[in-house]
Amino acid sequence: MTIDGHYELTLDTPLGPQDGTLDLETDGHALSGTISNARGSSAFDGGCVKGDTLAFTTKVPTPLGKLRATISARVQGDRIDGDAKLPLGRARLTGRRSTGV
User: CATH class for domain 5-95?
Assistant: First the structure.
């Protein structure tokens, strides 16, 4: 199964849980997309995919402004699980592919 798609996700950050969405698109091993939440959205490219694992760097909208996040995750079926390295520490990322977009 491809990792391309729209995911509803939660980042469990040091500032509390942040709900949002993640749109992923692959082109071979290249990854691009958009991460969004109630505070805004950020597009990214330059990510990479290897099998069911992915990694990318983006700016995540937070109560403190857009913070740089390096995200690594694994997609298994319709689930995505991983973590984000943030300036304030690590955040657990969990989510599910949404088919109602």
Answer: mainly beta
Provide the whole-model pTM: 0.91
Q: How far is CA 64 from the centre of its chain?
A: 18
Query: What are the structure tokens assigned to 43, written together?
Result: 């597009």
Question: Position 83: which residue type?
Answer: D
Average pLDDT, the chain: 91
The structural domains of the chain, with segments of one domain joined by +, span 5-95
23-27 contacts: CB < 8 A, separation 24 or more? 24/54, 26/2
Angle CA 88–46–48, to nearest 5: 90
Nearest to 50 by CA among 73, 81, 82: 73
Question: Does residue 89 come out as left (phi exceeding 0), alpha (psi in the -120 to 50 range) or beta?
Answer: left
pLDDT tens figures, 51-95:
999 999 999 877 777 889 999 999 999 999 999 998 888 999 999
Give CA 57 to chain center in angstroms: 9
